[in-house]
Amino acid sequence: MAELLTKFPRRRTVLLASLLAVGMTATACSAPGEDRSSTQKSDAAVKTELGTGPVTLEMYAETGFPLAKALADEFSKQHSNVTFNIREDQFTVIVENAPRVMASDNSPDIIRLPTMVDLVKDDLLKNLDPYFTAYGWDKFPASQLMQLRVGENTRGTGSLYGMGLGYSVTGVFYNKKLASQIGMTQPPATVAEFEELLAKAKTGGVQPIMQFNKNTAGINFPHQALQNQFGDPTQVADWIFQKPGATFDTPAALKATQTIQKWAQAGYFTKDANALDYAGMVGEFQKGNGLFMFNGDWESANLDKSMPGNVGFFLFPTESPGGKHVAMSAPNTFGVSAKAKNPDAAAYFLNWVHTNAKAREISVTVGGSSPGGPSDLPVPSAAPNTVLAETLKASQQLGAENGAVDFTANATGGIFAAAITPEMQKLIAGQQTPEGYVKAVQAEYQKELSR
Amino acid sequence: MTSALGSAPTGRDDSRARPTPTRAHRFRWARAAGTGWLYVLPALVMYAVFVLRPLVLTLQYSLYDWNGIGVARWVGLDNYLTVFTDSDLLKIIGNAIVLIVFFSFIPVALGLLVASMVRRITTGAFGTVVRTILFMPQVIPLVAAGIAWSWLLSSNGLVNQALRAVGLGGVARAWLGDFDTALPAVGVIGAWVLLGLCTILLVTGMSKIDPALYEAARLDGAGPVREFLAVTLPSLRQEIGVCLTVTIIAALASFDIVYISTSGGPGLQTTVPGLEIYRLAFSQRQVGLASALAVVLMLLVLACVLPIQRLSRGEKP
């Protein structure tokens, strides 16, 4: 210290110290953060009229998700007094920014949401229950909005905090040309049949699965698809919704992890999967460098454009013949900020998205996903012989079988980045055992819930 | 400490020591000092707002358990305890220390070599070309460099194509996605970025060396190696000090290259403190732990850099 000070003339030392002291006193008096809990009432009267006065809705949407803007444009066309001010960011950026943006003074009216529990806990999201009653959203299938409900620190039950701009379904896309090359004439009916196709492709010199695993674990898609089939999907849903006592350390998750390990060892994933990102995966699949790709219907319109007539889709097969299909399916969640300036107009827009015929058509043609809404409204049809038509059909089938579950990656705010992604990368590189994987994911989950 | 402080000459002490300062003197001094303060004020305000305040806030946050929005809970030194006991976080700090070899030692060593080769051609058109090529990596944004390198190092990238072309297809792999090669591959990108900076600094330093010294050495029968060790290296002490300081900070505080090329993967193989601080604060919302790690990183940087500063500035032996 003495040596340090000889280099530092006393005056400067005094100055620095006093500046630091001023900073300390200015900032360190109180704990950071503020208590914002229970400032809003959920039973406040709401308006379901849009009115004629000029309204500007602030929207915070996701880059590469053109549906939000398309719907906003159509809404402004139908309601000339409403204009939209849209800010776009990558989804991961929204995940990181959402709490601060929503706590700020210019909080958006409508915002694309990541996981909601923390936002509700911090009182940043508007409770939509009054709108649920006012607009009669009870006519929607209850399962459609289940993932958007938040109760006492759990999801799946409680008050409504979001709505979907389209409801996505996931499954397996396949390259038709490569499929016929290895003798696949129809989608596999069971997991065993699917594995046979993988083996056939491998021996036939065709890359069986094109799946990314770089910055986020894309191999979690096939992993959860297997996990959904190897046990009771309610167990998976309970874990995602943070039901007390739910665990990831189940025989189903372990068997799924063992299967992924087996597939990795057999070379069913690309050797460079850990260096392949999402865009790279889609690009390689479009170039015909892989037979299967686990992905969601948000890519349907894009794939129809890039490989017309050459791409098909099926829901991940069941473990036993004739079993129930289960698939990750989630609303493209949008919520209303607690501090929104025009919450009534925002809710009006969300209701319009689900019920207006033109809006529902845009959801299908631009978003590639089911528009949701009341079960008595017809689902707009997609052009025949497109993969879009196939994903739409799959979505309806899944609804009829009541087989939709959320993504395990959404269980907590940090589970995907802190556990699933690094551990999955280790697993497929032979640096982690299936037992170790399951335990590591559960350990991170418990760590986050205990905070 | 007292003696050190006592011996430090400062302007204020001088003015106090003056026997009988007249009123006018004192007034003039005060006015001069006041004007001086006015000159530095804009910079001082910026420094206080954008450097000192965040520094103090980081120290404060590191003592709390806070998600960035809600009410924070005082936890004392618990976050620091976590930093020093969590095996993942220790591994992450270890990664940064490994990167020092690539970001710092390799560029400085190679820089010395390249600089001694090109120092005679520092003038003229060719010299300009050489300097431009060497300095290019410093001009290219790190994000662009990261993207370009991840293409080069991908499984079908140029590096692997070259290996296959010369019959070394067996070692070809996705360099940034392989558990064994990811960290060294990131290190190579860093070395490429920083080599130019080091070379330019060292060439400039060499051009200041008195040619008479070389002449004297040659008259004494020194060869090129002896010349380098006896004349060039000691004369470049300060420049080497600057190179080491800048590159070690770049290694320990690295973020952009890693974020773009590997995102810290595979596993935690290339995760560095800068990336982890960002993730903890913004994706996992553990602002307290992130701040504690940031403070530890700052201390680590100081512990590495201050001795170098002292050595390179000290009197010649």
Automatic annotation (TrEMBL), chain A:
* Gene3D superfamilies per UniProt: Periplasmic binding protein-like II (3.40.190.10)
Broad class of the protein's primary localization: other
Q: Quote the InterPro entries the UniProt record gives.
A: Bact_solute-bd_prot1 (IPR050490), SBP (IPR006059)
The membrane spanning regions, by residue number, are none
Pfam families according to UniProt: SBP_bac_1 (PF01547)
Which locations, inside or outside the cell, does it occupy? Cell envelope
UniProt superkingdom: Bacteria
What are the record keywords, sorted? Signal, Transport
Extract the PROSITE patterns matched here. PROKAR_LIPOPROTEIN
Q: Which residues form the signal peptide?
A: 1-30
Question: Matching PANTHER family, A to Z?
Answer: ARABINOSE-BINDING PROTEIN-RELATED, SN-GLYCEROL-3-PHOSPHATE-BINDING PERIPLASMIC PROTEIN UGPB
Say which family it is in: Belongs to the bacterial solute-binding protein 1 family.
- Its name, as the record gives it, is Extracellular solute-binding protein
Species this protein is from: Micromonospora trifolii
Q: What is the lineage of its organism?
A: Bacteria, Bacillati, Actinomycetota, Actinomycetes, Micromonosporales
From TrEMBL, chain B:
Region: Disordered, residue numbers? 1-20
Domain of life (superkingdom): Bacteria
Q: How does it sit in the membrane?
A: Multi-pass membrane protein
Q: Which residues form the ABC transmembrane type-1 domain?
A: 93-308
Q: Where does the UniProt annotation locate this protein? A: Cell membrane
Keyword vocabulary terms for this entry: Cell membrane, Membrane, Transmembrane, Transmembrane helix, Transport
* InterPro entries attached to this UniProt entry: ABC_transporter_permease, MetI-like, MetI-like_sf
| Similarity-based family | Belongs to the binding-protein-dependent transport system permease family.
Name assigned to this protein: Sugar ABC transporter permease
Q: Which organism was this protein described from?
A: Micromonospora trifolii
